[in-house]
């Protein structure tokens, strides 16, 4: 191997912030576990991440010491719970550089966040006095891509069915990149919203969105980015991204399940009709009708997942303490290592970008014609946890002509030794099914 | 867990060299022919099972599909076990196989009834894979009903 010197004055390799992976792993109790007599090798963080002690402690502490309902009590516990819940919102707003705390809506997960936007469109479409940006009908278009998770396909299919609008999509190239060649024809004056994945949960591709954003602005449409896979792994700045909405989910970023985020530009959230009706989302209620609270409360009907939100705030603190740039770099190095290592396995075909550029640490592959279920089962017997199946992205599987894929995905606690264990496990798979 | 309990030689043999694979028309033009297509939505495995019967005997059970070794081997075993059998007898075997797969590894299979199907006893210990093994059997049940032959009691896959 030759090494190339980076000219002085340019950012140097050693300037990149780093962290001690062994110390990070010590924060995660689950790594004490054995699986089928082997050390746990967890390569399924794109599915859900593990939780550090710091997050588990906050979750426990909340229920043990501060439990009460939020936004409706004058008593001490109620005040503490409300402060913790709203404090978590502020942490999350800072984490994604949201201009205002009120732009962060707590949801159950990314799926619910996307559905809130889709149903706001739906509700607006039924009301002639609604903001025209959200009104959809025959002749209007919604644009997604072939690379989406089902959660960013089905809500839009249903919305188009309800409103008579047309659903269109960006194709995917053979290299697993978004095919933007038809951008001008796809995103037009008829387009009301473009909803795209920021980082693919199956191909690992990180989409460069600036060309698309520029086109979306040109035609006066709105842009939603599904950041479920990017917010946990890369520094995300919503001002810099220049999207109108982003969605992400807590459990993939060291937080608990049951808590996710819809971020929207304040002015847009304020113009959107409510979706779920109930407690907390109202201004006043009479038997004749109701008026609604300002965002974010307008979109948070009912008792929210309070402890989960507070623990997500702790997860954000944890990630910030390590540094998102350091995490991004760690995963970039792992990805480069894994692409090399997997490239050495005979008969292995990688789906998606095969260079560690414009992609994250999620790698899907086929091993000869061994079905992914069988690959996953043999790997599990060796303690290696990967996801197999269609990854809630069946159109991507169809695009590459396979019913299913095997996927290894990394996070801040992943080591190169774990990637070695995967490669060794794949040898075992080949032995069973040769 | 022992991997070889799951991947018994018999299962791998049926997977690598499936018996009776491919959808076929009935030899006897008088037969009722019907098929059912089942998918496992969690993993994308698919199988189509076609039954040709005169109402008494299952003259042919043909199938096609794609999926893991367990689901595809199971289809091969299904074909082998039930083809040419009387409908009543076939449903007894069906019931025994479903019972075996629902038994969490606690059911001792009867080789006289289940033949190569006994190899799936180990699969019953892997809850995530039970559906793989049952996929062709559930498709068979639907296809047989559509071809007008009786159905064994309701089972929950």
From TrEMBL, chain A:
Top-level enzyme category: transferase
GO biological process terms on file: cysteine metabolic process
Pfam family, one: Aminotran_5
Top-level taxon of the source organism: Bacteria
Catalysis performed (reactions): (sulfur carrier)-H + L-cysteine = (sulfur carrier)-SH + L-alanine
Entry's Gene Ontology molecular function annotations: cysteine desulfurase activity; pyridoxal phosphate binding
Domain Aminotransferase class V: start-end pairs: 41-422
The keyword Transferase belongs to this UniProt entry's keyword annotation: yes
Keywords attached to this entry: Pyridoxal phosphate, Transferase
Keyword Transferase: yes
Protein EC: 2.8.1.7
Cofactor or coenzyme needed: pyridoxal 5'-phosphate
InterPro entries xrefs: Aminotrans_V_dom, Cys_dSase_SufS, PyrdxlP-dep_Trfase, PyrdxlP-dep_Trfase_major, PyrdxlP-dep_Trfase_small
Alphabetical list of NCBIfam families matching this protein: sufS
Family assignment from sequence similarity: Belongs to the class-V pyridoxal-phosphate-dependent aminotransferase family. Csd subfamily.
Name used for this protein in its record: cysteine desulfurase
The organism of origin for this protein: Micromonospora arida
Biological classification of the source: Bacteria, Bacillati, Actinomycetota, Actinomycetes, Micromonosporales
UniProtKB/TrEMBL annotation, chain B:
Entry protein name: Iron-sulfur cluster assembly scaffold protein Is cU
InterPro entries in the record: NIF_FeS_clus_asmbl_NifU_N
GO molecular function terms listed in the Swiss-Prot or TrEMBL record: iron ion binding; iron-sulfur cluster binding
Single biological process term from Gene Ontology: iron-sulfur cluster assembly
Lineage: Bacteria, Bacillati, Actinomycetota, Actinomycetes, Micromonosporales
UniProt domain NIF system FeS cluster assembly NifU N-terminal: residue ranges: 7-132
Chain segments annotated as transmembrane: none
Matching NCBIfam families: SUF_scaf_2 (TIGR01994)
PANTHER family: IRON-SULFUR CLUSTER ASSEMBLY ENZYME NIFU HOMOLOG (PTHR10093)
